[in-house]
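Format notes (please read before filing issues)

Several people have asked whether sequences and structure tokens are stored in separate files. They are not. Every record keeps both together, in the order shown below: the sequence lines, then the token lines. Line labels are part of the format and must not be stripped during preprocessing.
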Amino acid sequence: MGASQQAACDTAVQPRKLAKVPFVELADGRLQGVVSSGSDISRVYVSSIAAGTHNYNCSTNNNRPCGGLYGSPCKHLQALTAEALLQYGLDRVATYLRVEVPEGADLIACLSGGHEPAPAAMVFSRFLRHLAYLEVPATTVPIPEMHWFPSEGAVH
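Then the structure lines:
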């Protein structure tokens, strides 16, 4: 990660490209979320990295393993991490995952875990629940459950 990219990650919430990683959260002791497939528009992956152990998993929403897990985090996990850095900032993500990231270093390169299967259903279900908010009529009243959306300037 370059210095300008890391500086952007240390600031408040940044606009994200929701089409590639529509859902990212720090919950249940993991950085986890939903990542769109690069090759099939109808396929999504549920990716996660456990706090502390840094063990990771990536599978389709019906628990078929990602073909890109070859002893290191796949491109879906890399995309998830990049979007988490935009949404939460490097300090918050590193603190949550309990990892030291030296200045100028890449977060993924600092993780020490290995592949460990994890169920995708709970994360995917939460993502689907959040999608239901797209049907909520427009309002100027804050909706607390939608805090994961950037406030403005999001790229679709």
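For reference, the curators noted about this record: DSSP finds four helices and four strands in the chain. The beta strands are 23-27, 30-36, 44-50, 56-60.
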